[in-house]
Amino acid sequence: MADVTQRILALLAMLQTGRAFSGDELVARLDVSPRTLRRDIDRLRAYGYPVTTQPGPGGHYRLTAGTALPPLVLDDDEAIATLLGLATLSATGRAAEGSVDEAAARAYGKVDQYLPKRLRHRAGQLRASLETSTTLAPSISADVLVSLADAMQRRHVVTFDYVGKDGSATSRRVHPYRHVHHNLRWYLLAWDTHKSDWRVFRIDRITGLQTSTSTYTPRPLPTDTALDYLRQGLDKDRERVVLTIDAPLPAVADAFTYQEAELVPLSDQRTRAVLKLDTWHWLLLNLAFLDADFTVHEPSGFRTALRAFGARLMDRE
Q: 38-57, pLDDT tens digit by residue?
């Protein structure tokens, strides 16, 4: 199957050059039999690619020109995943003009036009049947995201204006390395030339992005991944919380949906949870919904605070 896929892609790449190829030429280039070539051409047509055939002397194969985009080579599951991904992305943010979420909303409304004919009806049915709730998140510019990606690839220095979480505005000159998407936020990991250190920037707070012609020599990342570095920064003022909960892992996972939690099943009805929290108050609502016994192993301050809170509730009976 892998050989078939590679062969189909090689055939498609040749036809997408726009020129006509004789059958003998394609057979020789692909190192296949004429019968296999005909089958591969039929496969491309089944995917929705308009391959025309000129029979007889001087005959050839050609991919019909004139479409803005060729049909996407997606199987049924991939088409569904594409629509669901666009629906999810378009439901986050405020759909500002030029933003990624606004572009996703537009693409969601017409992606089925570029699918093979055999998938268009099913994709249209799914789109008509689907509703998503809106989870507001900062919109980011698609142009900024692509410009940063291009600068990363070319190792170009970029400059921009940045607004910190305290509202202060600064001008930055950085070597961009990675995009990170985490908890509905987009971040940039970069080497700040003025600070001579690694920094993480919220991309929605970046304005006035400029890419220079200056290049930089790549440095090794400060951690195994950019996400690891981001998490270290987010967790630096948080405490490690370890607890055992008398509830099955799926129930605990549902309760801590909006918390980063490392969950390990100890049995069918007991789960070990490890979280990073800045206050014990975050535990209360999640544990209350579980309605299960639990033991906080660390930190001791959280145990003391929860006992005191429980005592106050008892005093109000």
A: 999 988 888 778 888 887 77
> Confidence class of residue 13 from pLDDT cuts 50, 70 and 90?
confident
Please state, in angstroms and rounded to a whole number, the distance separating the CA atoms of residues 157 and 175: 5
pLDDT at 293 over 60: yes
> The domain spanning residue 292 has which CATH number?
3.30.70
Q: CB burial class (10 A; 0-12, 13-18, 19+) of residue 237?
A: exposed
Within 8 A by CB and 6+ apart from 241, the residues are 273, 274, 275, 276, 277, 283, 296, 298, 299, 302
Q: Which helix (H) or strand (E) holds 245?
A: strand 239-245
C-beta atoms surrounding 178 within 10 Å: 18
CATH number at residue 50: 1.10.10.10
Query: Do 23 and 103 fall into the same domain?
Result: no
In this structure, what token pair is assigned to residue 31? 């190192």
Task: Give yes or no: residues 153 and 221 share one domain.
Answer: yes
User: Is the separation of the CB atoms in 41 and 59 below 8 Å?
Assistant: no
User: What is the C-alpha separation between 284 and 232, in angstroms, rounded?
Assistant: 24
Residue 135 lies in a domain: no
For the full predicted model, state whether its pTM sits above 0.85. no
- Rounded Cα distance between 211 and 147, Å, is 8
List, in sequence order, every beta strand (DSSP E) within 149-184: 156-163, 169-182
Residue 99: domain span: 76-129
What is the number of domains present in the chain?
A: 4
